[in-house]
Structure to design on (181 residues):
């Protein structure tokens, strides 16, 4: 898998995918949620390349619109409704990558940043989110109400995920990720 991508993924993320099925992590005190998806399936086999192609193309568009705000080399790993969650690959060592949240300015409130960067990896980010120790202006708009109605983690039905993610004929534009991170 990593050879096809051209780079390694952070070990905490690989472990996260081993432990948790596809699903959504919810913050206990506001409406923020993070949807963690394992790789899409291509002919029944996990394929990060197909998943990342679409997400990276979107991040590149955001960077074109906001070059001063969006860091280079964003590598996607999760979604949150409209915003995307990325690693910022400033180092060739994926263990040094930090997490960034971005809506690319598409769904932005006037005073909201295009990108928020957090000095942690994916698992620590999720832990801070579900324990209420993480605040994000992008993930939880200032106007959101504090209502706790969902579990901290909500899995997606496995059969539904397989049906949704099996992309035997990928419809995404092919781009090379080699050297991207």
């Amino acid at each position: 898998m990593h050879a096809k991508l051209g780079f390694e993924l952070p070990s905490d993320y690989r472990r996260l995918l081993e432990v948790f099925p596809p699903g959504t992590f919810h913050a206990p005190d506001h409406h923020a949620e993070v949807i963690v998806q394992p790789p899409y399936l291509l002919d029944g086999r996990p394929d990060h390349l197909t998943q990342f192609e679409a997400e990276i193309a979107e991040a590149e568009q955001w960077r074109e619109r906001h070059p001063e705000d969006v860091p280079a080399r964003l590598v996607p790993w999760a979604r949150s409704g409209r915003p995307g969650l990325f690693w910022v690959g400033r180092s060739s060592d994926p263990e040094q990558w930090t997490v960034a949240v971005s809506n690319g300015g598409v769904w932005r409130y006037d005073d909201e940043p295009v990108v928020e960067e957090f000095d942690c990896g994916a698992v620590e980010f999720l832990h801070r989110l579900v324990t209420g120790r993480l605040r994000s202006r992008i993930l939880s708009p200032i106007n959101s109400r504090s209502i706790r109605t969902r579990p901290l983690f909500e899995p997606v039905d496995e059969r539904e995920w397989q049906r949704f993610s099996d992309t035997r004929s990928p419809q995404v534009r092919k781009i090379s990720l080699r050297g991207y991170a």
